[in-house]
Amino acid sequence: MSESNHENVPSRQRKRFAGISSRAYEHPADRSALVALRKLSGFDTVFKALSGLLPERSLRLLFLSDSVRVSDAQFAHLNTMLRDACYILDLEKVPSMYVAQDPKPNAMCIGLDEPIIVVTTGLVELLDEEEMRAVVGHEVGHALSGHSVYRTILLFLTGLALKVAWIPLGNVAIMAIVTALREWFRKSELSADRAGLLVGQDLQASMRGLMKIAGGNHLHEMNVDAFLQQAEEYEAGGDLRDSVLKILNVLPRSHPFTTVRAAELKKWAESRDYQRIMDGHYPRRDEDKDASVTDSFRESASHYADTVRTSKDPLMKLVGDIAGGAGDLGGKLRDKFTGANGSGGGSGSSDTKGTGTGGAEA
What we know:
By secondary structure, this protein is mainly alpha-helical. The protein is built from 16 helices and 4 strands. It has helices at 28-39, 43-50, 56-66, 76-88, 121-126, 129-145, 147-163, 170-200, 203-215, 224-236, 240-250, 258-269, 272-278, 293-310, 314-323, 329-338, and strands spanning 68-69, 96-100, 107-110, 116-120. The protein has a 4-stranded mixed β-sheet with strand order 1-2-4-3, sandwiched between helices. The longest helix has 31 residues, at 170-200. The protein is globular and about 55 Å long.
């Protein structure tokens, strides 16, 4: 199961990306961190030493003993999808994959030495073949990027934080690391969504899958355009108070909100970067050692600057105003936080901006 077998080709003609580097699809913030870590001398050795402290062996035994391992004999259609995904992204060693009994739709890729992909029965029962293909591609993308290493560490640190909660400041220090890892992971999920699109090569299937994860198996009651409109309203709606609430809501999450993921994936699918990959122009894996850390961080900084500049979120617009040297920042801050119309200048105006709450949850 763990050995490569690329004789199985996709059930319909899809492009294969021979030798593709994960840098081709990684979100700029995710890519810059990964490029930097790969450049650290002895990085792999340190994490292999850590593996003795992490519950990886226990997790492997748990899934082996209490889940169903995907193979030609069990969940054969998932096994075919897994091999297809590895074929398309040219991942030489096919990860082990398990189906775990859990009604909640979920999937993950964990492990330090060898990645393990786990999907729940709730997800398998929810998605059709093309939607599931995108999810499997998503998890294979995690494996190709090496995200499984950091996810395993995140699981370990989250558990450790609970154990040391009684130690003064101990929990604070660990949770600071966990919070940073979660922010990284939210960006890595956007990277993996892109990998899923490269594998499935069907944007509508990717959109449907995300909608189902948000709203269940009721496609006849849902609409992709309306779903994406929720993401637009979520970003632009409300005042500065809503912006703060958005941050607080997302901090404990390992994934971005589903509508946001859909909007980000659609934007990338329409970009020149995606088209270049589909045309066969992408960075190769054998060039990873030459990737520039400085260039990667520059691209990440540029991405965040563009996000601030183009965002419709009230807080991001305020940050843009501050960066641009806008006048009367005290008044702008007061008006944005209270939802007052900025043109009033006095205490008589109480009109609210935007379209209301606009905070649809996934």
